Amino acid sequence: MIKANFAFSKKKFPEKMKNLIKYSLICLFLAVFAEINSYAQTEGKYELRATWVASVANIDWPQYEDRGKPEDQKADLIAKLDLYESVNLNAIFLQVRPECDAFYNSAYEPWSRYLSWTQGDYPGYDPLQFAIDEAHKRGIEVHAWMNPYRASASTSPGADYFHPTHVYKEHPEWTMTYASGRILLNPGLPEVMSYIGAVVNDLCSNYDIDGVHFDDYFYAYEGTDVALDADEYALYNNGMSLSDWRRDNINRMIDTVYSNIQKANPNIRFGVSPFGIYRPGTPPGIIGMDAYNQIYCDPLAWLEDQTVDYLTPQLYWPTGGGQDFESLANWWADQCNTYGRHLYTGHGSYRLSADPGLKKSVSYSDLHENKNYFDLYINNSGELSDLSLLEQNLKKGTSDPVSAWTLSELGRQINIVRARQLESGLGGVYFSAKDFSRVQGMADYLALNFYTHPAIIPDLTWKVGAIPDAPQNLRSEKSGGNFYLKWDYTGN
User: Fold this and answer.
1) Can you give the pTM of this predicted structure?
2) What count of other Cβ atoms lies within 10 Å of the Cβ of residue 198?
């Protein structure tokens, strides 16, 4: 009957009616295309959605009370991953090396004290392998977050704090001890660069991780006295100023790490989350700490040298004011786009009150690892000022209006980044993981308004890796009322 009617319609329909049908079909096609295109521009088919899972000081995982309790640690991580899956996150940045220690079976460094109570104690399982297995079951990538230089996060570790195999015990001459008591590996030593490269290579060669991630800890934020690395500067400066030499040390370390990742597994992506302000006045109107000269961080050099796959600047400020999120995000997107790399912005969800319906008071006790420098500003004399004058400067737009943080601010930031998808703005990362349960309504707000569909991790088109084999014995199987697509594993 349908065929007969169709044949009749071809013979009998007037030309005007045929044109009308064609026009209607074209309009329908354009409407469908517009809907698809709108979805791609607003929600993003390709978008990284991640959260930092901090282990230092037991910020996120494992919880402090779960030290030495492997089964409780496992249950807690599973609950977190289930929550992230429900929000359509597709990656976690899991801190696996907070202070030259390990959350995995390292050939170079002892087990972390944040897993148990004593550095070097076997935690009863392999936390990283467990995280990889459970995350991959849920379609979530695991990026190993490592701190390249920090040997101690504590200002008073005590005489018996370090395990005998810790790098500080085996090579104390490789370290610098700051006035605060914190201990860092000395970036100016070639031995340190080689050591960090070997640690990363070992990790990438033995674990099925999806990425390696560094945060913003290079030279210390408190400032590095010239005496701390004077000997190394005298030996290795090659005619550079102290500042240029220190930046060059960081740049060469980044290059060493990228090269080691490429050798071990070129499919692993590598990125860094620098301080959110490159330099005061960049872009115009931005004020704040000069990371270029304070911690000797030069992410534009890494982009130009093609030694990172992405940047995740820590843009832990709201829109407006002297650290305007939108201005900064757009500037970083332009830089990443210029050099053909990805931008995944860092969002400061930790600034949200547990009840985001309430304005958060100005408080610094819960800043990201006490990163007070996110609230430093330039005073009228052009000097970097401390926190004591913050409240009186809020109205001037010269510092961070912490009280402006709401869920809608988080949504505004997501849309700002998505508007720059064509210029490498391809996702975001939240600090920190516990906020998805700590902040009332945050998980639902994101899932219902911004992450309503799963997203694919953006491709790194410049990376050359192994091409997977075609699926063998592709089939559909029913389990628990759901259908699953399965195929036989061929080893590649």
Assistant:
1) 0.84
2) 14
